[in-house]
Design brief:
This protein is mainly α. The protein has helices at 4-29, 36-72, 87-92, 100-108. The chain has one domain (4-108): DksA, coiled-coil domain (Four Helix Bundle (Hemerythrin (Met), subunit A), Up-down Bundle), CATH 1.20.120. The protein contains four helices and no strands. The protein is elongated, with a radius of gyration of 18 Å.
């Protein structure tokens, strides 16, 4: 079930996310205004950036897990039930560890 195109896609996405998170980190570490009103606005922006960063970190963990499954030879096999994950599902969600049935069950948990 492994497709080298999926591995390349995952690696490119991982690189893109890593660069984006580096930029977010730099922005969050930057100097803040001394003006209270501007500081409040900056803090709101920081909260948005932190949310984006957290979502990015979660995606990075999923991608790294998918790349590890590729290396282990278990990519495309559902980690929950052991059935094959449909190729069209992997095309849309290349980092998914679940077949569509198990994914639906995970959502309802």
């Amino acid at each position: 079930m492994f497709d080298t195109g999926q591995k390349a896609l995952l690696q490119r996405r991982l690189q893109s996310l890593t660069q984006r998170l580096s930029g977010i980190s730099t922005e969050l570490d930057g100097a803040h205004s001394q003006d209270w009103e501007e500081l409040a606005t900056e803090r709101e922006g920081d909260e948005v950036l932190e949310g984006i960063g957290n979502a990015g970190l979660a995606e990075i963990r999923r991608i790294e897990a998918a790349l590890a499954r590729i290396e282990a030879g278990s990519y495309g096999v559902c980690v929950r039930c052991g059935d094959s994950i449909a190729a069209d599902r992997l095309e849309v969600l290349p980092d998914t560890p679940f077949c569509s049935t198990c994914a639906a069950e995970e959502v309802t948990r």
